[in-house]
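Annex B.
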Amino acid sequence: MVSCLAIFTRLALKFVPGSEHDLEHQGDYSNERFTASGNLVDLDDAIDAFQTGLQIIPQHIDLPRWLSKLGIALWNRSERTGTRLQNLAASFGSRFKHTGDLADLDESIAFRQWSVRVTPEGHKDLQKRLFTLGAYLQLRSQRLGNLKDIEEAIAIQKKLVLLTPEEHPDMPMMLTYLSSYFHVHFGITENLDYLAQAIALRQRALLLTPEGHLDLPIRLNCLGSSFQTRYDSTRNLADLAEAITLHEKSLLLTPEGDVKLRERLNYLSSPLQIRFQDLGNLDDLSKAMALRQKALQLTPEGHSDLPIILTALGTSFGDRFHREGNLEDLAEAISLLERALVLTPQGHETQPLVLTALGSCYHFRFERSEDLAELRDIPGIGESGEEVEDGLGRAILLLQGAVELTIAGDAFLASRLYLLSTFLYSRVTQTNDPDDIEACFSTFERAALCEHGPPRVRLDAAVDWARLLQRFFPSSSDTLKTFNTAVGLIEVTAGLKQTVQLRYTHLQNISWLPLEAAAAACALERPDKALEWLDQGRCLVWGQLTNLRTPLDDLRSHDPALAQVVIQVSTQLDRAGSSRMESTLGMELPEKIALGAEARNHLNLAQRWGDLLNEVRAILGFEAFLKPLSCSTLLRRLPDTGVVVVINMTAARCDAIALLPGNDQPRHIPLPTFTLAKCNQYKHILDCRVTLGLPRERGGVHDSPPVDKSSERAFGPARRNRKEHGVRGVLRCLWGELVKPILEALKISKTSASVLPRIWWCPTGSLSFLPIHAAGIYGENDSDCLIDYAVSSYIPTVAALIDRVKASRSINKVVSGIFLTSQPHPSGASPIPGTTQEVRSIHSMATKNGVRVEALEGDAVTIDKCLESMEAYSIIHLACHASQNATDPLESRFLFHSGSLRLGRIIQQSLRNADLAFLSACQTSTGQEKLSDEAVHLAAGMLAAGYRRVVATMWAIGDTHAPAVARDFYQYLWSHGREEGGGGCDGKDSAYALHYAAQQLRLRLDDSEQSLLAWI
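CHAT domain-containing protein: predicted structure tokens.
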């Protein structure tokens, strides 16, 4: 009877339009029938009735009630269609995740937005409707990558947070939801500022959550996941350690038998596995595997989480096989992942992850195909030779499936494409099939050019793409395109959003790239591109600092207000980038929040800086503002005299690129007889001789007195007839294989002229550690050495030299002068009494020459006083110990009685009137071997701080030789300053002054190994 009544009512409404009351009654009646019977036809009738009624009363006072009823009906219909196989799941999100049906969700969102619009402020249901709308928008944004949805959700949730009192018990929940929305935004845009805001919100929610609260473990996991996500982008190990700590705390709060235990075991296993993958600590992997095995034991058959847990554990076994090579681990990995693939629904968001992991394991199996007999004996890994050998084909098919299921814009797309391209390359090495080669090219290219994804993955893809081109098409100009992409990604990998310390960490593993790119360009006879890439990709951090401190005279003339904003932001970003990274382990949460606020400010500044660059570059005439300089620009801005010689050194080849004033093209000089193997050998010989023949620091026990050789020149007969090894042999080889061919190509000959030509050397890689300036044949009869041909200087990049030329100006008389300090008895280091004599002697000379001078010794100089003096005097002379820190370059320092002057502190200075720094200390121009092309040493730090010229040492300097060298240096500098009508306190002749001082020391010594080391 009731069914018949329902049918007649439905027919009546279809043919006879009713009033709004009739329609509402029909809608309510149909909803009640649906609740009782679960029949979707009744629910459809309810929705039809409410939608029809809404068309009748568009501005009715009861409109919110109607919209609410329609929204509930749509929700119920979405519930039922999304979970026919699962008995009405409690959460719309979980149902939607399983069905992927967007129709009801779209309609529900539209009407809830309408409901919110017509609900007056202060209405009791407004917050609830806003909250639900935000959750729906987040779900749709996650599925479709829709930025508009998540931005609307963020705006809604921000409003709800503002409406919630700080002490309200719901505030942590509100903050957590808002943080989740920021997370989704970061996933779409990869803007680290949104992730930083998510972390800050989750820290605040955690701070408001009392001990013992049921949600405390959940919020610990949320915050831990945020730190892990940030690690994926920044590779800052402190973030990964923080993630592990938070997940451990959450797990400790979860008792055995808790329904969330399985989930929290998985949370902790993930960062442990990642840390193993990055650092190789097997203990991390063992812990991760134990956690995942326990999670698997707690997961019943048929549970929706089972495929995820199987995939995680299978990945762990695969990683252990890759580390230890146990084929049983590989068999277990494949078994687990095959099972996970069967259990994962087609089109599920985790399917690409399973396909990728399984494909990697089949590729492992292919790589071990030489162990065919052993493989056949492992259960589950292959029954026949064909099956084992076809692992590569299976791996490729699986990865192709993963790529097809990964939407454009997904952060994992670049990684999956890169992995697929390496699998394809494996097949290319087997077949040389043109189709495989073409597929490999296109896949590497897609990975390299992905807009999203880890910059390092895209960079690696670009490099492999270029190397593949070099292998199959060595003359192809496309190689230039690929390396151009790769070099451009270096700055993305180590950009301004990171601290200087973290940038150096990233650059350690990619410093070879500009050199390899330049070698490829030289092979194609494109020295112009080689020059540009070397200047763009080397000394990156110093270049970034220089850009932040570039004078803006032209921009100020065009737009003073914009120039002022650029100056303010660049100054703030400079300071933020030079700050120290601090570990948050052991910190209280309020301290962590404060540190996080600093990090967010740094990210905001970096984003603002990028926006400002775009704004300036949009102005006519400023299109190239702070962009890497082109070859033509570098040539146009060279000094008027002298030659710049850039030497690129790789395993494949060695080339010099010479830049001469007035020439519009660089000169390419191949150096076929000089190789990287020889370079490393010469460096090793010198390192051994320095260790044996010189003190490790100034004032050491091997310091020797000067030798008077007035009756004969410096090269006595002692070793003249012996076969030359050691230092003399290295210098001879550098001369014959490297320097002499360059001089001959440039037609620079030995001259008796009083003023020798100038050469600025710009070596790369291991060559940076060799004394090119001293190359030559040393002996009484056949002496022939560079020091008799030219005056040598070193530059980190050509752009650095041009910056000094651009900044060349007369010294302000207010700061013209020299500040001297000696530190003869620094704490924790050997005494260097010669520094006292050195400084007193220079002070006396300065006074006689009318030079403004201040000299302070020992305890009289604090770190702050030294920094103040660097601003007050155009020249600074530091006679002290120095210490290079290979692990953390910014911790390299000068040692004073009252503390240490760190390189990190020095580069925070911006000295507008700094002219010359004389570093009379040991190894002040010796960089870190892993960062040889970043010039991470104290001399470069002084250049970064603003000094136009720096005198520094490659290794230890004797405490008896140093004062004499310094005296000769200043004697030349000040005497020539007077001759030219200046005040004698200008460092423009410092290269010639150093050349003179070195010659004088050379004349006072013999030709022993130790003597050569002393003056070169």
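The radius of gyration is 35 Å. The chain is about 60% helix and 5% strand. Further annotation is deferred to the next reporting cycle.
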